[in-house]
Amino acid sequence: MAKVKAKTGLSKFNKLLFIIFIILLVATVVIVAVSPAKVAVVDDGQKEFVDEVKIEEFKPGTYGGVAFNSVEDVVKFYVECFNYNKTLTADYTENGEAKKYYKLLGDENLEIQNLLVEGKENATINKLVPSILGGIFKGAPKGLPPAANRDPQYDNRDDGPDGSQIPQQESHLTADDVLACNVVDNGDGTINITIQPKAALLSMPDQDSQGRFFNVLGDISGTVEQISVLSFSEGTIDENFVVNYAGGSGTITVNPKTKEITAADFEMDVHIDVQHANVTVIKNKSASLDIIYTNHFPASDDFLKESRNIVRK
Predict the structure, then answer these.
(1) Minimal CA–CA distance to 13: which of 148, 116, 160, 153?
(2) What global pTM score does this model have?
């Protein structure tokens, strides 16, 4: 029987995010409109954006027997570790069927924070967010980001420049993509490498600083344009729908002698800002929210089982 290529979880992930966003946007606008007395105004100050370093600064030195004298050294070693670990596979069963996935699989989690309409937050909608999110977003096992699939043979993106395919079995991160990084010797034969990529607007998978490090959303303007209840009173979608990736980082724990990653944590931070939005009969509103998307490696046996009925052999 011919094999059928699995759909990438990322495209489904993007659609879910924007379904969530629109549900929350509509609900919040309605609630704010009908109950203005219950909201709190948040002063965002409209400050100029600054890509701030959120992690400890890099200190050149030898960690775990490896010399790190520059950011270039850190990134080069990270890429080597990433590439090696994406050659490692393990045997699993999924719904009782034998599978060969990445040896290192992680979980995923999504949180929506700071949901504002017209600079206002609302206690009612804040209480609704977890239930709405829990009913739509279901985490799935992931390979090291960026990853399009937990099965190495399908870990390719089809949305590269000019429709080209981008393999995700190798990291394309460069030193120019990195805002800050550091290395820590754990004293147990492992080291931690932490990297914070530079900020990027409307990040594209494997095509910019954020996209070469995280599972980013890609070009979502087409998805937004298809949402019939949403339009803009003035300006273009690119002017009014700003998706800013900034502040997130990832940490891998690695055995420097073997370059095998034993644990990892990634946090991707995304701020979405909408101006001049029309939602059904409500006109010319601004809205914003923060997305906190995390991956932890290795995923627990319970997560694998409960999310996709996957069992390690």
Answers:
(1) 148
(2) 0.87
